[in-house]
Amino acid sequence: MNTTPQSNRLTVSIFGRCNAGKSALFNAITNTENAIVSDTPGTTTDPVSKSMELLPHGPIVLIDTAGLGDDSALGEARVKKTQSVLNRTDLALYAIDAQAPALDDYRVFAQEFTRRTLPHLPLITKSDAVPAPALAALRAQLPGALPVSDRRPEELTQVKAEISRRLDTLREDRPMLQDLLPADAVVVMVVPVDSEAPRGRLILPQVQLIRECLDGGHRCHVTTEKELPQALRELRRVDLVVTDSQAFALVARTVPAEIPLTGFSILMARQKSDLPVLLAGTQAVSDLRDGDRVLIAETCTHNHSHEDIGRVKIPALLQKVTGKSLRLDFAAGRDYPEHLEDYALVIHCGGCMISRVEMMNRIRIARNKQVPITNYGLFLAHCHGILERSTALLRAAGEVPSHA
Fold it and tell me: Which pTM value belongs to this model?
């Protein structure tokens, strides 16, 4: 459980007004004291998250957010961070104080949940603080709401069970590759080792794909781009080569045309994103004009080197391919500009460090602003003239339109 990345967990977030009992609920569910509980309004400033095991569902991330209705000097900034948590939430819990219900506020937020098609569960907190008739009357106004108090273990058990049940209905086991190949397939993975490669370990998409091959009964071989020619000579059969996208050009020249080729980032787009939308976004590269702004977004916050793919290699290739004078902006981690309409194109990383729901929300924001969006792997394949080849496996599976 502890080794499951947050990006592979469903996220449950607690929302509600200040002093509605959100932090007490967070601590009760996690059985910890991670969130500060106080009668002082605005105690929770930044979202507090905890990776945990919620039985019987499994590993999740639970987030406690700053309270709504905070009139302090920092209230607006806190609420903005709370709103951003919505973009990475799979199931929302809304805490309604039994002593001061503020139902109008809840209904406004419920409309936002509905607009986002985000499932939510209203919880009546501090249920032990009001008489039973008052609690019953409140529940009558909130169909489906559950009472909860950290002083009533049976209520907390019921809430946990309901959260787990709802999460089970949301679980999507979306593979990167496993279902696209026969069980005895031979897969060669090309993993460059440069200054950007983490010392002593592989990056998450590489680890995930190795595990998928093992689970699917595929024979998996891992090599660098330098040893790839020798590896291909030694193997009597290769059904697919998967490469890190920054080595696309070299690998495409090395791998015979009859051997299918794709990239880790493209397979991540299949698992976590809307692949047809990202594929269509590559067409915007040829439409860029002098002065256009391009956003390069990555979800990790690693130190950058002279070989950095997002800060160095993609900007250089963008300049070479377009010949235009472009204005480039960069976003890292969970920073994502509110005003995407200022951009002519978004080039996003594979998204291995965020969940599918957060990646899909980023795509949704771009589409709502009518801004083309693509990802690193698709952009690099397009610029190197191998987009058709690198998506052929997915076209054959019907996941990408043949004309795209």
Answer: 0.86
